[in-house]
Amino acid sequence: MALTLPIEDVLPELLSALDREGQVVLQAPPGAGKTTRVPLALLEHGLEGRILMLEPRRLAARAAAERMARTLGEPVGATVGYRMRGESRVGPATRIEVLTEGILTRMIRDAPDLPGVSCVIFDEFHERNLPADLGLAFAIEARTALRPDLRLIVMSATLDTGQVAAWMGAPVVTAEGRAFPVELRWLPRPLGDMRIEAAVAATVREALAETEGDILAFLPGEREIRRTAALLEDLEGVAIRPLYGAMPPAEQRAAIAPAEGRKVVLATAIAETSLTIPGIRAVVDSGRSRRARFDPGTGMTRLVTERVTKAEAAQRAGRAGREAPGICWRLWTRGEESGMQPFPPPEILEADLAPLALDLALWGGSPPSSPLRRRGRWHRHGPCCAIWAPWTPKGGSRRTAGRWPISPCIRAWRICC
User: Are 342 and 358 contained in the same domain?
Assistant: First the structure.
């Protein structure tokens, strides 16, 4: 018998609000089924034209498209497909397209009225990355000026819905509950000097002894994953499968595929949202994540390891309750959790804004405000001065440069030198 997902209870309300208002914010907990059920519900509702869904991560985009296509009994590329940089599986009959960051922005920038598109969905919007923020801003402006019939849906499990809904002028639809309960366990005392890899490995062994099924452990990056895998290599009858963004797609699919025996998936935040890994019954959360941070003083972006936010921890715990009741071991204390930030900061506050400036220029926006100019001051020296060329008579090459999949500073160097 097919599992009834929690999202089913609010689909009539969601569709009614969308018909009435044209835009809606959907808040649903991890495991509710929003990523795969909402696009298909729109199709079943008789919505004409294509449905675009922005998915932040490539692995999740592929998985969502494959899951929806499997539900319809079709191959990917028929009714449901996906499009990302360097990889596309869509056809002339494709009605639902799952897009990764940058693709949607480019589509709206090149054709602001989005011909043939009836609805744009922004999934996992709580991550607040630049492409999602910019894509939503472009979509709202396109809807206001060119396409009043364009429907917009913003979805997340942990989003502060009030602020976004007020900004959009959209109603909020909330789905309660998740598919299965997840028991949370905290440390009795802080880890102290214990290395995170050793703590994760020890907790994985505990989870294997106490639970049935597979284990998903979250670590900051590839280095920590490999060290933890080395500490677990003596386990018999258990497959240890790394999962991180730099892996080839075939290896990523193999990492989440069912195993003959039990498996332990050691993953970065790539497995945090919009992804159901079959067989997972327990999650071990290191409480750490690696993020890109831009330093205006040096003009460089670097990776830093930080504690996750409460919203991210909730997303990770939700992976354990997708198919059955589960357990999540959190490698921090309740006291430490009280000091965690509720949500991750929007990327626009901490990222290099040169790509944003170029996208705004190609959209036809106004010159950057003083704060944006101060953030990008270093770009105006030497060859990188061309970043600001879109607002000058010499900006004729900006549209060609905007199609290059490289840093705006390198684009400027190619233009000027």
Answer: no
Q: Collapsing DSSP states into helix, strand and coil, what is residue 15?
A: helix
Pairing of strands 87-89, 96-99: unpaired
Q: Do 285 and 208 belong together in one domain?
A: yes
3-state secondary structure of 167: helix
Q: Report whether 46 contacts 15 (CB < 8 A).
A: no
How is residue 219 written in tokens?
């670590």
Half-sphere exposure of 3 (CA within 13 A, CB side): 14
- Give the type of residue at 151: R
Residue 338, Cβ neighbours under 10 Å: how many?
8
Whether 142 and 168 map to the same domain: the answer is yes
Is position 1 within any domain? no
As a whole number, the mean pLDDT across the chain is 85
Query: Mean pLDDT throughout 64-81?
Result: 96
**Would you say how long the chain is, in residues?**
417
Per-residue tokens: 204: 């994985």
Q: What pLDDT, on a 0 to 100 scale, did the predictor assign at position 381?
A: 40
pLDDT single digits (tens) 13-72:
999 999 999 999 999 887 788 999 999 999 999 999 999 999 988 888 999 999 999 999
Examine the fold and report which residue of 149, 174, 199 is the final residue of a domain before the chain moves on.
Answer: 174
Q: Which residues contact 11 (CB under 8 A, 6 or more apart)?
A: 37, 38, 41
Q: Tokens 């109603």 identify what position?
A: 171
Bridge partners of 301, per DSSP, are 294
Range of the domain at 202: 182-347
Q: Which tokens in the block code for residue 160?
A: 């502060």
Let me know whether 342 and 368 are in one domain: no
Reported pTM: 0.80
